[in-house]
Amino acid sequence: MKIENHMLSINATGNTDIHDITIEIQNLIISSNISIGNTTIFTPSSTSAITTMEFESGCIQDFQDHFKAVANPNEFYKHNERWHDGNGHSHLCAALIGPSISVPVINKELHLGMWQQIVFVDFDNKPRQRKINVQIIGQ
């Protein structure tokens, strides 16, 4: 079994900024020495998340609207009281989705559904440069 570790970098604007990273992940798999196995995509951040969705303008807007309703940035959050950084809602949104996903790799391709893309979501309230860890395991 082989293990490869890679890092992606994203300039994110925050406020439910969504990036389709499917092609970048697929390119890492193509250039890897692994043709069958699994890849894990992980964001080392408590205010961002990794998930899958149909990366289409209507779905993106629905996603952003939903999370504003679930964790309204204008509400009171105890986290903001403690740190005064105004991103309490960001932590809640990121926790609801989670920091990682795992996707099968078959014949050097991500095994995703037809309308399924891998996305990075930055919920923080300010721009940041983000790192994404990609680990590919297999043979």
Q: What does this protein look like?
A:
The strands form two sheets. This protein has a five-stranded antiparallel sheet with strand order 1-8-3-5-6, covered by helices on one side. A three-stranded antiparallel sheet has the order 2-7-4, sandwiched between helices. The protein has a single domain (2-138), classed as YjbQ-like (Jelly Rolls, Sandwich). The longest helix has 14 residues, at 57-70. The protein starts with a strand and ends with a strand. By secondary structure, it is an alpha+beta fold. The protein contains four helices and eight strands; from the N terminus they run ββαββαααββββ. The model has no long low-confidence stretch (mean pLDDT 97). 29% of the residues lie in helices and 39% in strands.
Summarize the structure.
The protein has 139 residues and is of the alpha+beta class. The protein contains 4 helices and 8 strands; from the N terminus they run E-E-H-E-E-H-H-H-E-E-E-E.
Secondary structure elements and pairings:
Blueprint: E1 2-12, E2 17-20, H1 22-31, E3 36-42, E4 48-53, H2 57-70, H3 78-83, H4 88-97, E5 100-106, E6 109-110, E7 117-122, E8 128-138
Antiparallel strand pairs: 1-8, 2-7, 3-5, 3-8, 4-7, 5-6
